[in-house]
Every structure is written in C-alpha cells, then in structure tokens.
Design brief:
By secondary structure, the chain is α/β, with parallel strands linked by helices. It has 13 helices and eight strands. Helix 10 crosses helix 13. The radius of gyration is 24 Å and the shape is elongated. The N terminus is likely disordered. Strand 1, helix 3 and strand 2 form a beta-alpha-beta unit.
Length: 370
C-alpha cells in the first residue's frame, strides 16, 4: 500500500485514550505447527487484531496458514514468494495502519514459538503503560543457546553500541512493541530482511523515542530448526549498517585529502587548503550520513547549523593538530593530516550520533529488573 495513502488515514498523533491500543503482527516463513498454538493462545488478548504474513512459504505450508486464518480477528496475508522478514513486517504494518487506523502501536512476535504468550502479554502491558516508547522483549543469553543466535546477537549488539551509543541487552529480539510514530518511519526504510529491525532501533534513537527492555524467557527447540537467520549472510547485512558510516567516512576522507593535497601543492597555504578541502567534502558527507546511517528526516534548518558547527570545530582542531605535528615532531603535512583525521573520525561519529542527528537529548534505554 502506498505510504501516502497510509499517512492520509491518520496524519495527526493519536490521542492518549487510544494510544495504548495495539495489534499483533507475526511474520512467518515455513513455520511449524507451533505457530497455530501461538496464535490460538494470543487470540484472547486485548489487541485489535492478529495479522500473520505468510512470506512465500509455499503450498506445503498452506494448511497451517488456513488453520490460523480461521481464528477470530486473525488476518493472513500471503506473499507469492519469499521477500524477507523486513518486507513481511512492512507489509503487515501497512495493512494494520489501513484497516485499524485507531491503533497506537504494533507488537511483533516471531513465528517459531520462541516467545512465550505470557511474555508477549508482559510486553503488551509495558507498552500500554508507555505508549510512546519502543518496548523490547529481551532474552537472557545464557545456557544452551544456539551458536548462530549468540553470534548474531553479539554482532548486532556491537553495531548498536557504536551507532546508538547505548548498550542493548538483545538487539535482535523479534518481540517488540513499536509506537505509532515509529511505524510510519519504518515504512520508509529500505531493509527487507533482518537488517530492517536494526534500522528500526536506529530510527528510534534519532527520533528521540525511549527504548524500554522487558526481560523474557529464552525458548529454543533443539538445534533451533525453525530459525531462518543465516549467520554469515544476515550478519553481513546487519553489519552493513555500521559499514555505511565507515565507507562514507572513508570516501569523505579520500575526497578531503585529495582536495587538500591539490590545493596545498598549488597555494602552499595550510589554512586555505584545509578550509577548501573541508568545504568540498562536507557537502557529500552531510547528505550521505544523514540518510544512509542515521535515518534522520529532521529539517535542514535544524540539522545543518549543528553539522556546520561540528565541521568548523573539527576543521579547526585538525588545523591545530597538523601544526603541532609538523612543527613539533617534523611530521610530513599530509601524514599529519591523515593521523589527525583518523582520531577525529571517532569523535565525529560520537558527536553526530549524540547531538547532530538526534531529535532531542535524554534518549535512554531502561531495563526492568528480572
């Protein structure tokens, strides 16, 4: 469904009276019959509806989805071919926003039976208490956890630590309550597989949405046969989010140093070369980082002054650093610039993450005691 049509359904924020209402969304690809029991146990909840997206499972699984579809207030959406978990989630979100325009959020549940219905209810209740927050059902990664689940969660936790500046207990959990404001943003995201959930966390950070963590049980079948997470391929997709910033930073640095070298060779002026190189590179960096890494849609009139202030400060610090290295330590001017800019890369990432591209301060992660 086109985003414009969905936005037209409700362009104003929901009132507090309806903000805590929600629907349940389950993306499913070649599920076992466990999914039937999961849906049956969730049917009697206080939600508006349950939407199950068959992400191209094929005719062998049709009977499972047919049985699920017989439940009250249960809708089954079918994809003719597998499109990925992110695409299934976006399809379900679009359907719910169209058919249930009064909902204040959506609670996503995995189809493999790893989420105890009692824990789903806990996350729902936490969301009803905090309808403007993103609530994550976080697992305890101890004991007999499948290796691929441990590896995937370890990688994404490291990525989120770098990009968000927050330490999340479980960045890969599929049990999460997503508030209405974040749902409209989610429909604009490009991720179609597991990286979609990571992009949602990044968007929440930069929209100033609180992230609440609700401890849940960790349930796995022996060998985790129903999981479709591919450790190498999907981890590469998830890591690519952080790689975006690194690659953009590298390209910006190459452009900056190239222009610096050419200007310095022609003019011999350090300050002119430094200023000219930074002006050229920042136009590329600002646009690319704003969209590709931080997923920010704040207006330029708010972001650009912050970004330019950071760029000017960074340029000044870089200039001073180059002067010190070239005069006090006799370092070649180009090498000095590379050394200083390498240090500033980490500083710039932190400042952009925490100030330039974040909607407001005070965004934090809250973990409820187990």
């Amino acid at each position: 469904m086109p985003l414009k049509e969905i936005s037209a359904i409700r362009s104003a924020p929901p009132s507090p009276a309806v903000a805590a209402s929600f629907a349940i969304l389950i993306p499913a690809y070649r599920p076992s019959e466990v999914l039937i029991n999961v849906v049956r146990q969730l049917v009697l909840g206080e939600h508006e509806a349950i939407v199950v997206v068959d992400d191209g499972s094929g005719s062998d699984y049709a009977s499972i989805f047919d049985e699920i579809g017989r439940g009250p207030q249960v809708h089954v959406i079918r994809h003719p071919s597998n499109r990925g978990k992110g695409s299934a989630l976006k399809c379900g979100i679009a359907f719910i926003l169209r058919e249930y325009p009064g909902v204040g959020g959506i609670v996503t549940v995995d189809a493999d039976g790893q989420h105890d219905p009692a824990d789903v209810r806990k996350v729902c209740e936490r969301f009803q208490e905090n309808p403007d927050a993103l609530v994550l059902g976080v697992r305890c990664f101890e004991g007999g956890i499948p290796l691929r689940s441990k590896l995937g969660n370890l990688l994404t936790r490291r990525v989120m630590r770098a990009v968000l500046g927050h330490k999340l207990s479980d960045s890969q959990t599929g049990l999460r309550a997503i508030p209405i404001a974040l749902l409209f943003r989610a429909l604009k995201m490009h991720g179609s597989r597991y990286e979609f959930e990571l992009e949602t966390l990044i968007a929440a950070k930069h929209m100033g949405i609180r992230i609440l963590e609700e401890p849940i049980r960790t349930i796995y079948e022996p060998g985790n046969p129903t999981s479709h997470f591919h450790p190498l391929l999907d981890s590469m997709r998830i890591g690519y989010v952080l790689l975006h910033f690194s690659m953009i930073g590298i390209l910006s640095a190459v452009l900056d140093n190239l222009v610096f070298y050419l200007l310095f060779r022609e003019t011999g002026s350090l300050i002119r070369s430094q200023a000219g190189a930074r002006i050229v590179s920042l136009f590329f960096n600002y646009t690319a980082v704003r969209r590709a890494v931080f997923l920010s849609d704040e207006p330029h009139r708010i972001l650009l002054p912050r970004y330019l202030l950071l760029a000017a400060t960074s340029c000044f610090i870089s200039y001073i650093g180059i002067i010190i290295l070239t005069t006090a330590f006799q370092v070649n001017v180009l090498l000095a610039k590379i050394l200083v800019e390498t240090f500033l890369f980490i500083v710039n990432l932190t400042v952009q993450r925490e100030w330039v591209f974040t909607k407001r301060e005070g965004v934090h992660v809250e973990l409820r005691s187990r």
